[in-house]
Amino acid sequence: MTAQTLFDGLRMGDLELPNRVVMAPLTRNRALPDGDVPHTLNAEYYAQRASAGLIISEASQISPEGKGYAWTPGIYSDAQVAGWRQVTDAVHARGGRIFLQLWHVGRVSHTSLQPNGQAPVAPSALAAETQTFDGKALVPTSTPRALDTSEMARIVDDYRKAAINAKRAGFDGIELHAANGYLLDQFLRDSSNRRTDAYGGSIENRARLLVEVLEALTAIWPAGRIGIRFSPFSHFNDISDSDPMATFGYAIAKANEFGLAYLHLVEGETGGPRELPEGASIAALRALFKGVYMANNGYDRDLATSAVVAGEADLVAFGRPFIANPDLVERLSQNAGLNELDRDTLYGGGARGYTDYPAHKATIAA
């Protein structure tokens, strides 16, 4: 049997992908400040990158309460749905495929970003030792209040409504964000979840909200159009767990029961080193999931190519290389040079550092 390459097609769930290069979800803080609405500039940005085997949108809050950073898009209002429809139409016009990432930040927020200046919500009233952007500066996150047991149904319903809105907006599927220290990750980890009710304590209880959300999502979308993202060994946003192999082994095994399209793992520290702690194994976690495996974190052409050829990954998600290289798939396939990333324009602003990176052919012509 011939080994697969990064540029071979792949059937993922019930979707055919032309290659295995995925555009990772990338927060860029360029939604309209009035209503957190995607707009024409966002449509141009994503359409430029439509040659990816799959685009995963930037994380999008499922409710006003789910917001943690200024100028990030939502998926709970009619205006946001219409804005995202501009994006999906533009991507589809270029032959692309795009999933929406569903996001609730939990405690990684600030009262100035919350409805009526309320405290953010979390499994437990424990502040995250991290910062967020309030539209003016980086500020320490606010101390959250613990969600009441009776509120869990509301949280699940917010995810359900967001999944419906993703369909209305024309997305090809959805990815559930359960990584990087946000709400679902906060429930999974024993450092942030100190609850004593049915949603805390044992691994089974800490994963209860995740399972309930997956039940709601699979009632809206076919399982083959849903992916899930975890970051088992990352400490991003002040998150940790006493036994991540056990915690995420259970969570991944439960996710596998739903027949999801793919498992998306951040390998190592989010945006940082790929090294794993003693006793940790990406391969062992991946083996618990029977669908497509999407690898992420610090991949370049050589590492991605070897991972796919060796069968260690089915898809590889690229983040910052896709920011600076809208035609990343072509550049990788030709082993061409990459544009230099302008880090000063990563978050917020307009077209500069967003839609003005040149394609490879334009670079050659110059």
Give a written overview of the molecule.
The protein has twelve helices and 14 strands. Strand 11, helix 7 (244-256) and strand 12 (262-266) form a beta-alpha-beta unit. The chain has a single domain, classed as TIM Barrel (Alpha-Beta Barrel), CATH 3.20.20. Strands 3-4-5-10-11-12-13-14 form an eight-stranded parallel β-barrel, surrounded by five helices. The chain has a two-stranded antiparallel sheet with strand order 1-2. By secondary structure, it is of the alpha/beta class. The mean pLDDT is 96. 29% of the residues lie in helices and 16% in strands.
Describe the protein's topology.
Blueprint: E1 10-12, E2 15-17, E3 21-23, H1 40-48, E4 54-61, H2 78-93, E5 98-103, E6 121-122, E7 131-133, E8 138-140, E9 145-146, H3 152-168, E10 173-177, H4 183-188, H5 203-206, H6 208-218, E11 226-230, H7 244-256, E12 262-266, H8 282-286, E13 292-296, H9 301-309, E14 315-318, H10 320-324, H11 328-333, H12 360-365
Parallel strand pairs: 3-4, 3-14, 4-5, 5-10, 6-9, 10-11, 11-12, 12-13, 13-14
Antiparallel strand pairs: 1-2, 7-8
For the biggest β-sheet, the strand order reads 3-4-5-10-11-12-13-14
Look at the structure and name the CATH superfamily: Aldolase class I
Largest sheet: number of strands, sense, barrel closure: 8 strands, parallel, barrel
Percent in helix: 25-40%
Summed up, the helix count is 12
* CATH domain topology: TIM Barrel
* Average pLDDT reading: 96
CATH class reads Alpha Beta
Rg, rounded, reads: 19 Å
Would you tell me the structural class of the helices and strands? alpha/beta
The ordered H/E elements are: EEEHEHEEEEEHEHHHEHEHEHEHHH
